[in-house]
């Protein structure tokens, strides 16, 4: 029995009637009653303590009317109920209230209530209207309202609450605040959160982490939320701030646009300040160290200045321009950094809502503040609308500084103004860097310059500016900013610019699929040594990193190893590059590739706290942390967008509950596993862990660890997701040969590969000639034997190996489909242990496969069919799978695993999977039980024309059971139903003749012989001059001579019947006519008259060949009639021992037929006919007096 909740508060109870696989499901309604005034939110069955020897089961229902009720289902009576405290928010207008009350039964805007039970008894856990959790003890009659136990954990509505079966009083809640929490009920009836499962409701658009201390990883999400994640390494796990490892903030409210750009404040003094940009064009600051109010989380904040389009980059940079550089108006907008930070603190705490202009009320106050600011004053710069903006307060119009940068020399003014800016990056020269030829502590560049600025353009170029270090720190000189150079290493829009931590190197990524790394050390040194700045253009680069197949979206240098560069791309992968100095073999190569993402990547980040940890995020709502030294792949795939199987990824990314931190913070009482326990999704782990340096406690060099791996993966192009055929090579052929004449072969015809299948099976059955390697699957159409069974097992092993190899080489979503097919075949063969080891090794454990392994009753075929008694669990599971996915192979495998092979075969037949049904019946069923199913499969395959490349499938089947008479009938039917040319008919009649020789009934061979002779003559006279090596006459002579040898040679142990020896004079006559048609002179030829049959028998056979004789408009048919009539005339006009009236009448009849045939030939081609008649006159003279009538008749044909 199960319950269903409906709108308007109705509950229905239904009884499920179990049925077989082939029958339909049946539901019987038990009862139906009105439970709540508004919609049903949820229901569950409550188990009470055992009393009086038995337990009772009640139905608990929750409704949007804020009531929780407990029902006795037998009586449809509510014996307990309680109302959840709180009230819903009122509508803002009466119109909305009336509409709310009218629509949806008054449920619009009303709360959602959930409830569950962790252990049998009277205590229930109930969710509140604002994310609270209450406890309700049903045995306390005096309790008028539930008791609040978790008021401040969830900040928004809980829409799912379920207990975890067979656990230590655990339950799980899912809230609208994007939190999934696991709770434990203590013995004191308290609810304690023990684990938080991080969730994302949108794609990751930006990643950032502060360079100071152990700051969190900030992730901008496309739904408008901001994720702050503190991935503590192992040494900090015990001392980390409990409850602060994962925080979700909504800077612009629940309904705001996605966050597209992030930047932490570069100063340690203000490292908690985070600048962000949104898709709607908003740029603002967020103080992550301050407590956030949650009461108005649903209310969108007042927006600052909005660009209206996406902000692609936000960065912190210095104050570049003097207040008088733009008509003396700039100074009124510049605000000291101390004031900005002070303003932001009030703004974020909700205590200050005024405009920042009140902080620069007078010029004197600004001057005083300027004298107090730090050595470097930082402001937020953003890239939007193809321009560069400087934000001097976030509720006023930002300052457009695009054209304030000096114009590089040698550039066109109009082009420089119109070209769109796409990125900006700052390099703070606050510490010495590695400069070749100088001591590491003596960097001459930082003594001369304090900032390097790079601007990226849509056309692919990058402008590099430097700012001369001022001798007066309190003042700005606009003339100190100089254009240093223009880099032209890309041809498409710049997407990302990243400066190295220890060198003057910049990595450039664009819409091109490659990355360029430029070393500016030489250019900077040249600028120092020169007397004046001279702008130069450069198109050379230190390295060109190729491997990605789509645009580059993110770049980040490793802060731990200056030689490693991290990149992300639209091809769905993140890559680690080695950009070392010197002559290392790892220079400028790809050393690791992460492929767990399925869609495009938008950002990547190297951890500031761990050397072997990187992060990547994209549009599929996944933020993944992975270790480059553990990756299996070293190079990106060659597909434009790599999409690995999602199941592997889900199997590897799971939090370790045992290592989770305890929770004792009531504000954010959650915990998450440390990233060191996370395994890179869809990557194989190395057998040995990396060595650790005892002095530093850090893993060895990532580059050395990765370079020691050998990757043998094959890259394939992306394909669409589709279930592959289970037996793709069954009854399928690669090379298809057609019927053709070959005068050098024996017999002089090469039959087609489809017809040769019949001959191969026939010779295997009667002469024990082995089948060719490509025809082994034809044995499965024959009766069962030990040999055919061994061949079947061998064939299934080959098919399984084919699927496994396809799985290993596939790099798209079809890979797991092949692995599923591999496991299905092994389960059909009963190899359960092999399937178990495979799915464990490959980390692929779909629920249906685990269910099949659990149900498997035997490891050998031909076990006794399992009888169905009571509840048919496998049948119901198969029907459920058919209703969900319609995957008949999975359903059949479930039935096979449960010992229901007959039902599985019938299911495949009903689903038109006939080839799989045929092989499964041969493999799993007894031969007697399988015979009717095999016959049914073959009939349906022939009727549906799904025989593949074996059109004579039924003929092969009948051969196996020794019914040659049926075989001849099927071949005759094939000739009628599939008309072809003369060569095709000759091939079919030859095959029929060979088979008919093994028949005990000579009439079959007699009829096959006549049809073969007729087709043989027609094919011979149809030969054309298409071969330059032989003439038509030579081809015909060789053709008919070969057929004479064929018929003289016994076929196996059965010689030709003596009554059919007429074939030899017929072939001699055909050969004689062929020679007479040639352009050469007359060639004498003796007609063989050695035959054991009587003259009357031979004439009767010739009459059977010329039955239904009609005038023909085709030359080969005329020549056929001439050859047959000439043979009959020679038989009756040769010297005879008897001279009777009956003989003379027969001679007159045969002569008349021959002259008519020659007249028909003269109508088609008079030249060839006259040549033939002249040669026949010469031939008749050689017959002597017996040929005189022939001589006169031929002469009469030549007279006009």
UniProtKB/TrEMBL annotation:
GO biological process: spliceosomal snRNP assembly
Renumbered ranges of WD repeats: 545-587
Residues covered by region (Disordered): 84-107, 634-724
Comp. bias (Polar residues): 661-679, 692-708
Family annotation (InterPro entries): Gemin-5, WD40/YVTN_repeat-like_dom_sf, WD40_repeat_dom_sf, WD40_rpt
GO molecular function: mRNA 3'-UTR binding
Keywords linked to the UniProt accession: WD repeat
Stretches with biased composition (Basic and acidic residues): 682-691, 709-719
Name recorded for this polypeptide: Gem associated protein 5
């Amino acid at each position: 029995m199960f319950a269903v909740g409906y709108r308007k508060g109705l509950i229905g109870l239904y009884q499920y009637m179990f049925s077989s696989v082939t029958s339909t499901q049946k539901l019987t309604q038990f009862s139906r009653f009105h439970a709540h005034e508004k919609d049903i939110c949820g229901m569950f069955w409550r188990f009470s303590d055992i009393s009086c020897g038995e337990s009772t089961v009640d139905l608990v229902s929750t409704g949007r009317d804020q009531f929780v009720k407990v029902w006795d289902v037998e009586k449809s009576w509510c014996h307990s109920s309680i109302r959840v405290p709180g009230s819903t928010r009122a509508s803002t207008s009466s119109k909305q209230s009336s509409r709310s009350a009218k629509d949806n039964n008054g449920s619009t805007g009303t709360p959602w209530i959930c409830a569950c039970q962790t252990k049998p008894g009277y205590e229930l856990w109930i969710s509140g209207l604002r994310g609270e959790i209450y406890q309700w003890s049903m045995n306390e009659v005096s309790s008028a309202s539930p008791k609040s136990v978790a008021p401040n954990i969830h900040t928004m509505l809980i829409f799912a609450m379920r207990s975890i079966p067979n656990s230590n009083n655990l339950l799980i809640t899912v809230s609208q605040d994007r939190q999934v929490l696991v709770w434990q009920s203590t013995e004191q009836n308290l609810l304690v959160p023990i684990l938080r499962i991080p969730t994302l409701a949108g794609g990751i658009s930006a990643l950032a982490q502060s360079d100071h201390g152990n700051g969190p990883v900030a992730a901008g999400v496309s739904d408008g939320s901001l994720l702050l994640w503190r991935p503590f390494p192992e040494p900090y796990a015990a001392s980390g701030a409990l409850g602060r490892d994962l925080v979700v903030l909504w800077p612009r409210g629940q309904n705001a646009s996605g966050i597209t750009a992030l930047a932490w404040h570069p100063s340690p003094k203000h490292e908690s300040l985070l600048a962000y940009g949104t898709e709607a064009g908003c740029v603002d600051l967020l103080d992550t160290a301050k407590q956030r109010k949650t009461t108005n989380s649903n209310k969108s904040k007042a927006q600052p200045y909005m660009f209206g389009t996406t902000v692609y980059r936000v960065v912190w940079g210095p104050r570049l321009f003097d207040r008088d550089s733009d008509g003396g108006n700039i100074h009124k907008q510049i605000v000291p950094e101390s004031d900005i930070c002070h303003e932001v603190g009030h703004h974020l705490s909700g205590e200050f809502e005024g405009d920042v202009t009140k902080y620069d009320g007078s010029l004197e106050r600004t001057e005083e503040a300027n004298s107090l600011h730090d050595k470097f004053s930082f402001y937020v710069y953003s890239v939007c609308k193809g321009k560069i903006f400087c934000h001097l307060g976030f509720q006023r119009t930002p300052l457009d500084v695009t054209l304030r940068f000096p114009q590089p020399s040698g550039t066109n003014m109009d082009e420089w103004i119109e070209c769109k800016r796409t990125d900006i990056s700052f390099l703070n020269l606050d510490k010495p860097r590695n400069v070749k030829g100088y001591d590491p502590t003596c960097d001459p560049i930082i003594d001369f310059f304090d900032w390097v600025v790079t601007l990226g353009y849509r056309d692919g170029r990058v402008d590099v500016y430097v700012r001369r270090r001022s001798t007066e720190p309190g003042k700005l000189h606009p003339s100190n900013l100089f254009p240093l150079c223009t880099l032209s290493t890309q041809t498409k829009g710049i997407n990302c610019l990243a400066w190295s931590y220890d060198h003057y190197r910049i990595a450039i990524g664009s819409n091109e699929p490659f990355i360029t790394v430029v070393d500016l050390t030489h250019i900077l040194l040249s600028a120092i040594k020169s007397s004046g700045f001279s702008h130069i253009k450069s198109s050379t680069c230190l390295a060109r990193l190729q491997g990605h197949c789509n645009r580059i979206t993110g770049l980040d240098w490793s802060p731990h190893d200056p030689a490693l560069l991290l990149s992300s791309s639209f091809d769905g992968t993140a890559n680690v590059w080695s950009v070392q100095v010197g002559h290392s073999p790892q220079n400028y190569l790809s050393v690791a590739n992460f492929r767990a993402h399925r869609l495009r990547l938008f950002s990547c980040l190297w951890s500031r706290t761990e050397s072997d940890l990187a992060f990547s995020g994209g549009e599929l709502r996944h933020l993944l942390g992975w270790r480059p030294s553990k990756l299996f792949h070293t190079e990106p795939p060659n597909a434009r967008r790599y999409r690995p199987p999602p199941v592997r990824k889900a199997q590897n990314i799971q939090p370790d509950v045992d290592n989770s931190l305890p929770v004792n913070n009531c504000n954010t009482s959650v915990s998450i596993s440390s990233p060191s326990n996370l395994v890179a999704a869809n990557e194989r782990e190395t057998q040995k862990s990396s060595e650790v340096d005892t002095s530093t406690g850090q893993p060895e060099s990532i580059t050395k660890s990765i370079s020691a791996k050998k990757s043998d993966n094959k890259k394939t192009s992306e394909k669409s997701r589709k279930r592959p055929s289970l037996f793709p090579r069954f009854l399928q052929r690669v090379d298809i040969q057609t019927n053709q004449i070959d005068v050098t072969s024996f017999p002089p015809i090469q039959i087609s590969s489809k017809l040769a299948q019949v001959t191969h099976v026939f010779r295997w059955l009667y002469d024990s000639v082995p089948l060719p390697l490509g025809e082994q699957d034809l044995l499965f159409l024959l009766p069962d034997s030990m040999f055919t069974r061994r061949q079947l097992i061998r064939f299934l092993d080959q098919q399984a190996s084919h699927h496994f190899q396809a799985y290993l080489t596939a790099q798209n979503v079809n890979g797991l489909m092949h692995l599923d097919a591999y496991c299905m075949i092994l389960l059909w063969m009963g190899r359960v242990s092999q399937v178990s080891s495979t799915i464990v090794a490959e980390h692929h454990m779909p629920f249906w496969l685990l269910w099949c392994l659990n149900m498997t009753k035997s490891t050998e075929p031909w076990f006794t069919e399992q009888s169905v008694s009571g509840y048919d669990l496998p049948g119901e599971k198969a029907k459920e799978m058919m209703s969900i996915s319609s995957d008949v192979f999975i359903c059949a495998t479930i039935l096979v695993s449960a010992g229901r092979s007959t039902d599985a075969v019938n299911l495949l037949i009903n689903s038109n999977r006939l080839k799989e049904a045929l092989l499964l019946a041969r493999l799993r069923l007894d031969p007697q039980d399988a015979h009717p199913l095999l016959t049914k499969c073959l009939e349906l395959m022939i009727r549906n024309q799904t025989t593949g490349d074996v059109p004579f499938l039924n003929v092969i089947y009948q051969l196996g059971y020794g019914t040659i008479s049926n075989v001849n009938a099927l071949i005759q039917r094939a000739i009628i139903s599939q008309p072809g040319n003369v060569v095709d008919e000759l091939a079919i009649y030859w095959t029929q003749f060979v088979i008919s020789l093994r028949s005990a009934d000579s009439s079959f061979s007699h009829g096959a012989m006549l049809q073969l002779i007729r087709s043989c003559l027609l094919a011979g006279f149809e030969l054309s001059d298409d071969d330059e090596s032989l003439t038509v006459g030579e081809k015909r002579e060789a053709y008919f001579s070969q057929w004479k040898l064929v018929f003289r040679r016994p076929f196996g142990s059965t010689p030709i019947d003596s009554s059919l020896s007429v074939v030899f004079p017929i072939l001699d006559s055909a050969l004689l006519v062929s020679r007479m048609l040639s352009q050469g002179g007359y060639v004498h030829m003796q007609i063989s008259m050695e035959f054991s049959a009587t003259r009357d028998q031979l004439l009767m056979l010739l009459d059977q060949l010329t039955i239904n004789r009609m005038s023909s408009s085709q030359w080969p048919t005329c020549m056929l009639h001439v050859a047959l009539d000439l043979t009959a005339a020679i038989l009756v006009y040769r010297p005879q021992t008897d001279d009777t009236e009956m003989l003379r009448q027969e001679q007159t009849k045969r002569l008349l037929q021959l002259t008519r045939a020659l007249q028909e030939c003269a109508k088609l081609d008079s030249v060839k006919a006259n040549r033939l008649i002249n040669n026949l006159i010469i031939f008749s003279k050689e017959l002597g007096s017996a040929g005189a009538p022939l001589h006169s008749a031929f002469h009469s044909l030549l007279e006009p």
